Every structure is written in structure tokens, then in C-alpha cells.
Amino acid sequence: MTAALTLDPLVPWPVLWGLAAFAAVLLAVAVWRGLSGWWLRGLTALVVLAAIANPSLQEEERAALSDIVLLVVDDSASQGLGDRAAQVEAAIAGVEAEVARLENTELRIRRFSDAPEDGGSLAMTALAELLSEEPRARVAGAMIITDGQVHDVELAPTLPAPLHVLLTGQETDWDRRLIVKNAPAFAILGEEVMLTLRIEDQGAAPGATDVDLTIAVDDSEPQTFRVPVGEDLDLPVTLPHGGMNVLQFSTPAAEGELTDRNNAAVVQINGVRDRLRVLLVSGEPHAGERVWRNLLKSDASVDLVHFTILRPPEKQDGIPVTELSLIAFPTRELFVEKIEEFDLIVFDRYRMRGILPMSYLENVAQYVRNGGTVLVAAGPEFGAVDSLWRSPLAEVLPVEPTARVIEGGFRPALTDLGRRHPVTEGLEELAPEGGWGRWFRQIDVIPLAGQVVMSGPDDRPLLVLNRVDEGRVAVLASDHAWLWGRGYEGGGPQLELLRRLAHWMLKEPELEEEALTATTTGQELTVRRRSIAEEPPGDLTITGPDGAVTVLPMTEVSPGRFELVWQAPMMGLYRLEQGDLTRVVAVGPSAPREFVETIASGAVLEPVVTPTNGGVTRLEDGVPDIRAVREGRPAVGRGWVGITPRGAYVTQDLTIAPLLPGWIWLLLAASLAIAAWLIEGRRGAKRITASA
Description:
Layout: E1 2-7, H1 13-32, H2 38-53, E2 55-64, E3 67-74, H3 84-101, E4 105-112, H4 123-132, E5 139-146, E6 163-167, E7 174-182, E8 186-188, E9 193-203, E10 210-217, E11 223-228, E12 232-237, E13 243-250, E14 264-272, E15 276-282, H5 289-297, E16 302-308, H6 331-337, E17 344-348, H7 358-369, E18 373-377, E19 399-410, E20 413-414, H8 416-420, E21 439-447, E22 451-455, E23 461-468, E24 471-476, H9 482-485, H10 494-505, E25 515-521, E26 524-530, E27 540-543, E28 549-552, E29 555-558, E30 561-567, E31 572-578, E32 581-587, H11 606-609, E33 616-618, E34 625-628, E35 636-637, E36 640-643, E37 649-658, H12 662-691
Parallel strand pairs: 3-4, 3-5, 5-6, 6-33, 8-14, 15-16, 15-17, 17-18, 18-24, 34-36
Antiparallel strand pairs: 1-2, 2-37, 7-9, 9-12, 10-11, 10-13, 13-14, 19-21, 20-22, 22-23, 23-24, 25-26, 26-30, 27-28, 27-31, 29-30, 31-32, 35-36
Helix pairs in contact: 1-2, 2-12, 6-7
């Protein structure tokens, strides 16, 4: 039971203060005139003002409320390192026991894990949420069990009591991490780009000066180098192919380090070609020559060099050479000196007429073996005595002509293999209403190697693709593809076919026959597999960043295409394996935010706990005792932490009664006024008598 005096004026406070001022003026006048009852006048005014103020006696019946201690527990991924998980559980049990020992004290616990989208450890957010659920007047203290690596310090709430950090981990912990400090998203093929890497040790590291760094591009054989620790490494990289290039960097796990989750990184760089250099050699003028030229020139990224042989050397008609061409055919320059500069060589209805020596065509064959690409658009001459087949180039061609030319209308069609092959798959969907336009001539050939993806009449090979050592060759056994380009009978996808052919021949990864690709959206992993094999590929093996292996089947979504959508359980690097194909993909960052800084430290939270008189205590020294301290006093010491009892209560009953009844106030005021009148009246009468 508590009592207190309260005022509830009968008039507004400004009026009351005005009356008080008026009474003070009257009292001053009385003193100035020497009235003997001035003090009684003052008492009278005081009684009247007190009555107007309406004093009351307030009595409360209170019930004490318990103090509340807040405990926020960090269950993020980094808390699973070393023995931190055991430290966390021991700390929770210890705090629960200490709070239970205190009188009239309760414990509130809130656990949090990794924030979505690699948000890290949001300890302050969890603390603010827990604080908002409790009356601030009852909060006597707060504690956070964490490794100290939190990522929302700027959101720390204002606490009415001490905040303590119970730090997990060991002072002897150390970790090695690999950091990609600078990596471009795009790079031009053939030009060096600079990547900046850094390998550094954190914590109580053993002091290594050199470590192994393993570098791999896509699924190629990795290479290992010895590099220094703690220094920025400028790594020049030249991309091997166009499209997405996946560069993998890793350093082996060292004995004693906390984790190897941050020992690897993946960089994806999109390789783009500055210019695609194409050499188009037309053996003679014909209707399709202009179409080939226009198709290639329509692409701004294509640098086209085109020569048409107008007159063979054996034709002597007296016309000066200067009237037939602007420049002479630079055979030596093109086929000896600068042949390696071309990305694609196209022979369009070319025949052997002595213009190109056999040694030059041998250079072309060697150019293919070394990684070059050749497309042969064959006409009737391909089966004649002056055919390219009768040159050294025949060593790399995948077909043999029979010397038969098939005349008559036919519609090109995709083979079963062609429906699965990336060069031709889906082309049927691009056909106009009524189907593709007809062609009227095909050269009969016998496939010797490679893949037949398009066929003509009687299922004869029309488009044959083949790999020769490092290079690639394609043979189109017809010179009527230009009809598609002219839109005859609706035409056909000549531009798309040529684009895909060029990209396949240039070894673009998205057009590989056997390919394993993966994309991520959040933590959802979408894996796609392309295969031209008749038998479906086997199960997909997924190795997670923690070493866990998952084997899953893939579903066929279209001929030659298989797909799998899988929810990754955690962020990090995943290795995908299916047969001979491997792929490394990063779900989120290769090293999640939780593993960027893994050494337990109170430095980040020190500015937050110090203003509250709290502190940072290491759990490796044991769970601290909890003591009650007065507000404003230091609340941390050796082996103990403090909370401030709040003395909160709830009012169960409230009684308000006037200090005095109104008639008593009236009686007091009247008595004092009469007394003053009497005293002043008697003294006035005495003065009159004395003067008489």
C-alpha cells in the first residue's frame, strides 16, 4: 500500500496561478500599509488557494512484477564451426540456471539462424523483435550468445538495461580464406583480363608464407601454383571460348583451420568476340552468292572477307584483270600468312581450277586440325573431277561424293539426331505455315564420319557435322539454301541455321552436343543436360559445400534435353557430375557471408554494449554468474555479468479521497479572515482613543 498527495484544481492552472499572483499583490499592499493582520491575510489567501487546488490523498495497492532478462541465441552457420554449438547449448543451460536462482526474474529466449538471401547474422534485429514483445519497464538485462560476427549492428535498439555478449569460439582459432577482390563480368576473347585474388589467414594462424592455389576453367584439368599468403595476386586470364566461362579457384584445407568453406571461389565471365572474321570464297557467280554475302554482312559483329572467282586462269578472253576485280586474289596472304586470323572459312561452290595450290589447301586442312572451322556449301562441282574432295582438304571432310546430282523439288528435314542436336533442334518450330520452302538440288554424298542432322530426298545426308582434332567441319550438300533466304514458298530459317552453325563451329558452350549447365535463383538450382545419345544420361550426382552427396534423376523435357529443379539446402559451391561431365556452380556467393569472417571477436559489438555498461565475455572461460547491480553502475566483471532490477509493479486498486472536506476549508478561511479583521479593528480603536 502506497499513498501520495495529488492536486486536481477546480479551475485551470493558469487561473490558479493568476489568483496566487493577485493574492501576493494584496499581501504586499497590506505589509506596505503596516496592517498588523497581514500574516493572517496571507494565511487566508493560502487556505483559499489550497481549497481551489483541491488536494487529494491517493492510495494504491500494488503488486510487484518480475524482472525480465532477454537472451538472443545465434544459430547461424558460423556457429556450427569447431565446438561452438556445444558452447551455445552449455551457455543457454547456464543462463537458465542463473536466472532461476534470482528472485522474481524471468528469462525470454529468441534463437535466429541465417538471414535469407545471404543476409548473414541479424542479431540486432532479433534483439529488437524480442524487446518489442516485452514491457521495457521490466527488462533488467539482455544477452547475446554469438561469435560476434553480426551484420546489422547499425540496427541496434536502445536498451533500458545492460547488454552483454557471451562470445563463442576460442582465442586460438584461425582460418584461411580466398578472396576474389576484382573480376569482370565480361571479357573479349583473345584479350587478357586481370583478376585480383588474395589468400589471407585470420586469427592465431601458424604463419604460413606460401600455399597452393588451384585454378581450373570449366571442366578442364586444374593447374596448381605456389602463391604467397597475405598479398594481392594479379592474375591475367585469357578466356578459351565464347559464352560463359567458369573459373574455379581453390586452396587446400590446412590442418587446424576452422573451415574450408571459404577456401574456394567461382568466377563466371562471359566471353564475347570482338569481331567474327569470316573468309567467304565463292567458286563462281551464282544465285546464292549474294544471299550468303548478305546474311554474313547483316551481322554487325562479323568482319567478312569475300572473294568470288569470276574467271578461271585457263580462260583467256583478252579482258584485263583490272577490269574484273578491284584487287588481285591475295592467295598467299589469305591461306598462308593470315589463315589463323580467320574464325570461319566458307567454301561456296568452290572447284579446283589451279587458283589455290594444293599446298594452300593442305594449310586449310592443318588449320582445321589446329582448331579452325570450315563450312563447305557444295554444288554440282563437288562430285566432279575438280571437286574439293580431290584435294588435301578431303582429309578433314566427313563425306565422300558419289558424283550424282539429284534434281527435283524436296523439303529439307531434320533427322532423329538433328532433332536432338543443338545446331538444328527446334528449327522445325520456325517453319512458316505449310512447312519449309523447297530446294531443287542435292549432291549425293556418303557420310564417312560425323553427325547427319539434316536430310534430303530418300533420307540422303544433307547437312553433316564433324570434329577433326581441335577443329570442326560442316558440309551442306546443296547449293539451294539461298532459296530460304529469298523466301521462296515461305522460305526457312537460313539465318538461324547459319548462326547456330557458326557458333557450334566456334565452340560456343551453349551449342555443345554434350553439355551440363546450371543456373540459380536464390537457393533454387536448375540443372539442364543436353545429350545427343540415344540412351538417356544417368543420374546426377550433387556434392554440396559440406561434402554431402545427393544423387537425383533428371526428367526429359524435350528430345535430347533433360532438366532438374532442386532446392539447395545451403549456400556455397556445388559440384555437379554426370558421366564424364562436371560443373561447379555457386548457390549465392561461393563463400556465404557467414564464412567471410569466421574468427570470433567482440570488436563489432563493443560499441553497442559499452554504452549500456555491459561487456563481452568469452564462454571458453565458463558461463558467467549473473548478479544484480544498481542502475548506472558497471555491470560486468571477472566471471560475472550484471542486470539491473527494475522494480516494476502493477496497480491492483486505487483510492482517491479529498484531503479535507470543503466546509473545513471554508471554516478555516473564514476564521482567519475574521481574526485578521478583529486584530486590525482593535488596534485601530486603541489609536483613536489615544489620540482623543
